[in-house]
Amino acid sequence: MGPFRYVDPGIPDDGTVELLLDKYTEDVDKTRSYVPFYEFKVSLSGTGKAVGGLVLRVGYNDHIVVCAGHIGYGIDGPFRGNGYAARAVALAVGFARKLNMPYLVITTRPDNEASKRTAAKAGFVYAGSASVPEDDEMYAEGERIMDRYVLDL
After folding, report:
1. Fewest beta carbons less than 10 Å away: which of 35, 120, 134, 145?
2. Is the pLDDT confidence value at 3 over 80?
3. Torsion over CA of 129, 110, 65 and 104, rounded to 10 degrees?
4. Is the pLDDT at 30 greater than 70, yes or no?
5. 108-121: buried (b, 16+ CB within 10 Å) or exposed (e) per residue?
Protein backbone atom coordinates (compact mmCIF):
# COMPACT_ATOMS: atom_id res chain seq x y z
CA MET A 1 0.00 0.00 0.00
CA GLY A 2 1.42 3.35 -1.05
CA PRO A 3 1.23 6.68 0.75
CA PHE A 4 -2.12 7.78 2.08
CA ARG A 5 -4.36 9.67 -0.30
CA TYR A 6 -7.70 10.91 0.89
CA VAL A 7 -10.70 9.31 -0.79
CA ASP A 8 -14.18 10.69 -0.17
CA PRO A 9 -16.12 7.86 1.48
CA GLY A 10 -19.51 9.24 0.50
CA ILE A 11 -22.16 7.87 2.85
CA PRO A 12 -21.81 4.09 3.07
CA ASP A 13 -25.30 2.78 3.84
CA ASP A 14 -26.79 -0.70 4.07
CA GLY A 15 -30.39 0.39 4.58
CA THR A 16 -30.20 0.00 8.36
CA VAL A 17 -27.10 1.98 9.33
CA GLU A 18 -24.91 4.48 7.56
CA LEU A 19 -21.47 5.91 8.19
CA LEU A 20 -21.33 9.70 8.33
CA LEU A 21 -17.83 11.11 8.06
CA ASP A 22 -17.10 13.15 11.17
CA LYS A 23 -13.37 13.70 10.68
CA TYR A 24 -10.36 12.53 8.73
CA THR A 25 -6.76 13.36 9.17
CA GLU A 26 -3.41 12.75 7.60
CA ASP A 27 -1.74 14.94 10.23
CA VAL A 28 -0.81 12.25 12.73
CA ASP A 29 2.04 11.74 15.17
CA LYS A 30 4.11 9.14 13.35
CA THR A 31 6.56 8.97 16.26
CA ARG A 32 3.67 7.40 18.20
CA SER A 33 3.00 4.98 15.30
CA TYR A 34 -0.26 6.70 14.40
CA VAL A 35 -1.58 6.40 10.86
CA PRO A 36 -4.10 8.48 8.89
CA PHE A 37 -7.69 7.75 9.85
CA TYR A 38 -11.34 8.33 9.05
CA GLU A 39 -13.71 8.82 11.97
CA PHE A 40 -17.41 8.16 11.40
CA LYS A 41 -20.66 8.49 13.26
CA VAL A 42 -22.71 5.32 12.98
CA SER A 43 -26.26 6.51 12.32
CA LEU A 44 -29.60 4.96 11.56
CA SER A 45 -30.04 5.12 7.79
CA GLY A 46 -31.48 8.35 6.49
CA THR A 47 -32.12 9.85 9.93
CA GLY A 48 -28.77 11.29 10.97
CA LYS A 49 -29.51 9.84 14.42
CA ALA A 50 -26.13 8.73 15.79
CA VAL A 51 -26.09 5.38 17.57
CA GLY A 52 -22.31 5.05 17.93
CA GLY A 53 -18.99 5.61 16.27
CA LEU A 54 -16.35 3.89 14.15
CA VAL A 55 -12.77 4.69 13.19
CA LEU A 56 -10.90 3.28 10.21
CA ARG A 57 -7.13 3.55 10.52
CA VAL A 58 -5.36 3.49 7.15
CA GLY A 59 -1.87 2.08 7.45
CA TYR A 60 0.24 -0.82 8.60
CA ASN A 61 2.74 -0.92 11.45
CA ASP A 62 3.20 -3.00 14.59
CA HIS A 63 1.03 -0.67 16.70
CA ILE A 64 -1.88 -1.09 14.27
CA VAL A 65 -1.64 -4.80 13.42
CA VAL A 66 -0.82 -5.96 16.98
CA CYS A 67 -2.42 -3.44 19.33
CA ALA A 68 -4.88 -0.86 17.99
CA GLY A 69 -6.32 -2.57 14.90
CA HIS A 70 -7.60 -0.90 11.76
CA ILE A 71 -11.21 -0.65 12.88
CA GLY A 72 -12.45 0.49 16.26
CA TYR A 73 -16.16 0.72 17.01
CA GLY A 74 -18.64 1.36 19.75
CA ILE A 75 -22.41 1.47 19.89
CA ASP A 76 -24.17 3.55 22.53
CA GLY A 77 -25.83 1.53 25.31
CA PRO A 78 -29.49 1.94 24.34
CA PHE A 79 -28.76 0.75 20.78
CA ARG A 80 -26.68 -2.34 21.54
CA GLY A 81 -27.92 -5.79 20.63
CA ASN A 82 -29.27 -4.82 17.20
CA GLY A 83 -26.25 -5.81 15.13
CA TYR A 84 -25.41 -2.20 14.30
CA ALA A 85 -21.70 -2.62 15.04
CA ALA A 86 -21.28 -5.57 12.65
CA ARG A 87 -23.21 -3.68 9.97
CA ALA A 88 -21.01 -0.61 10.46
CA VAL A 89 -17.85 -2.73 10.29
CA ALA A 90 -19.08 -4.32 7.05
CA LEU A 91 -19.58 -0.84 5.58
CA ALA A 92 -16.06 0.14 6.67
CA VAL A 93 -14.70 -3.02 5.03
CA GLY A 94 -16.32 -1.99 1.75
CA PHE A 95 -14.70 1.42 1.99
CA ALA A 96 -11.31 -0.12 2.88
CA ARG A 97 -11.52 -2.10 -0.36
CA LYS A 98 -11.88 1.19 -2.26
CA LEU A 99 -8.70 2.33 -0.49
CA ASN A 100 -6.93 -0.80 -1.78
CA MET A 101 -6.08 -2.01 1.70
CA PRO A 102 -4.93 -5.65 1.41
CA TYR A 103 -6.23 -6.78 4.80
CA LEU A 104 -7.77 -5.43 7.98
CA VAL A 105 -7.19 -6.24 11.63
CA ILE A 106 -9.60 -5.78 14.52
CA THR A 107 -8.14 -6.14 18.00
CA THR A 108 -10.11 -6.73 21.19
CA ARG A 109 -9.35 -7.20 24.82
CA PRO A 110 -9.56 -10.92 25.65
CA ASP A 111 -12.59 -10.34 27.91
CA ASN A 112 -14.60 -8.28 25.37
CA GLU A 113 -17.04 -10.95 24.19
CA ALA A 114 -19.35 -8.49 22.41
CA SER A 115 -16.51 -7.10 20.32
CA LYS A 116 -15.33 -10.62 19.45
CA ARG A 117 -18.84 -11.53 18.27
CA THR A 118 -19.00 -8.35 16.19
CA ALA A 119 -15.67 -9.08 14.49
CA ALA A 120 -16.73 -12.66 13.69
CA LYS A 121 -20.18 -11.57 12.47
CA ALA A 122 -18.46 -9.09 10.11
CA GLY A 123 -16.39 -11.92 8.60
CA PHE A 124 -13.12 -11.49 10.47
CA VAL A 125 -11.25 -14.65 11.47
CA TYR A 126 -9.59 -15.14 14.85
CA ALA A 127 -5.81 -14.97 14.33
CA GLY A 128 -4.66 -15.55 17.91
CA SER A 129 -3.56 -13.42 20.83
CA ALA A 130 -0.61 -11.05 20.78
CA SER A 131 1.39 -9.53 23.59
CA VAL A 132 1.38 -5.75 23.70
CA PRO A 133 5.00 -4.61 23.44
CA GLU A 134 6.32 -2.78 26.50
CA ASP A 135 7.24 0.23 24.34
CA ASP A 136 3.69 0.60 22.94
CA GLU A 137 1.54 3.30 24.56
CA MET A 138 -1.24 0.75 25.11
CA TYR A 139 1.11 -1.11 27.48
CA ALA A 140 1.40 2.04 29.58
CA GLU A 141 -2.42 2.17 29.62
CA GLY A 142 -2.49 -1.30 31.17
CA GLU A 143 -3.06 -3.49 28.12
CA ARG A 144 -1.01 -6.69 28.01
CA ILE A 145 -2.74 -9.02 25.55
CA MET A 146 -4.92 -8.28 22.53
CA ASP A 147 -6.95 -10.82 20.58
CA ARG A 148 -6.56 -10.31 16.84
CA TYR A 149 -9.15 -10.84 14.10
CA VAL A 150 -8.12 -10.56 10.44
CA LEU A 151 -9.97 -10.17 7.15
CA ASP A 152 -8.18 -10.44 3.79
CA LEU A 153 -9.67 -8.05 1.26
Report:
1. 134
2. no
3. 110
4. no
5. beeeeeebbebbee
